Amino acid sequence: MDPTPDQLVEMYRRMVRIRSFEEAATKLLLGGEVPGGLHTSIGQEAEIVGACMALRTDDYMVGNHRSHGHPIGKGAEVGRLFAELLGKVTGVNAGKGGSMHLSDFSVGSLGETSIVGSGIPVAAGAALGSKMQGTDRVTLCFFGDGASNEGTFHEGLNLAAIWKLPAIYLCENNGYGELTAASEVVAVKDIAARAAGYDIPGITVDGQDVLAVFEAVTAAVQRARRGEGPSLVEAKTYRYDNHAIGIPIEHYRPQEEIDRWRERDPIKLFEPLLQDRGILDEQGLERIRHEVQAEIEAGLEFARSSAYPDPEDAFEHLFASPLGQPRPPARLADLPGPPG
């Protein structure tokens, strides 16, 4: 299924939004406003957006520690994401999750975690729930090349395969697991080849080409909705920043490799296609960039002006309180959102 002109414009908008959000988040971290680590997906925007745009809003999505792009790609609003990074009560997780633990149920984002590979069985569980409920809702699971060596990869894909669960497993193969080249720790050239071990489809696509990813994931989604089970999609991509912002080690990647991948910037590759198809001219592209920047600035203002949680809120959203009877928990949906 070819994307409509409106979908193509939205793909561009979401890729620019991810890039702009993470550039702003980097400045927040380096300026001392964000505690903890920050892992950016700058350079990987096409595979995120291409995959998420193949979904419906009510479909599920599970991300990973390189976390901001996934909910934004699924349609999350940036103000509450910024608020979460700053630890504010208006954050998507009431300021308790931070950068690596974002979730936004309003767009089907079930959450992310800093534990490598942990989202893979979670996605199988979500897909199992959809099947048991008799819906056609699918689950998209993002994970990295390093996670494909974890036991959870085998367990999650094996369960999804034998139960024919409506799941799409998308490996973001950016060539490195933290500071280690995938070529040194992965026995196969293409991680998608591992799909054969579970008797499910496996396909490798250019992760810098948003339309190639959209096409591959759309086919996997259609297969899942028909009840034919999961698929494994591998997107060959690249992160332009270090493993995490602020890590001083940057000698594990050859500069010529970084330069070569920067020449394949997914946003820059997509712009000529939009122009050639007469969908957006340079003025239209610039307008979207300005609109996204306005969103970012408004989201930052909302986050910075929001309150921090009260100390006693630490015992809300728990299974049990160590202090006895807790107060009635506040629902995230009842928290004030950004203006507009």
Tell me what you see in this structure.
- This protein is an alpha/beta fold and 340 residues long.
- The protein has a single domain, classed as Rossmann fold.
- The strands form two sheets. Strands 2-1-3-4-8-7 form a six-stranded parallel β-sheet, sandwiched between helices. A two-stranded antiparallel ribbon has the order 5-6.
- The protein has helices at 5-30, 45-52, 69-74, 78-85, 119-133, 151-162, 182-185, 210-225, 255-262, 266-276, 282-305; strands at 60-62, 109-111, 139-144, 167-173, 176-177, 180-181, 202-206, 231-236.
- The protein contains eleven helices and eight strands.
CATH superfamily: Thiamin diphosphate (ThDP)-binding fold, Pyr/PP domains
Number of helices: 11
DSSP strand count: 8
Q: Please write the CATH class name.
A: Alpha Beta
Helix content: 40-55%
- Please compute the radius of gyration using only Cα atoms: 20 Å
Number of domains: 1
Kindly report the CATH topology.
Rossmann fold
Which oligomeric state applies? single chain
Largest sheet: 6 strands, parallel
Give the CATH architecture.
3-Layer(aba) Sandwich
Annotation keywords:
Rossmann fold, two-stranded antiparallel ribbon, alpha/beta, 11 helices, 340 residues, 6-stranded parallel sheet
Condensed summary:
This protein is of the alpha/beta class and 340 residues long. The chain has 11 helices and 8 strands. It has one domain: Thiamin diphosphate (ThDP)-binding fold, Pyr/PP domains (Rossmann fold, 3-Layer(aba) Sandwich).
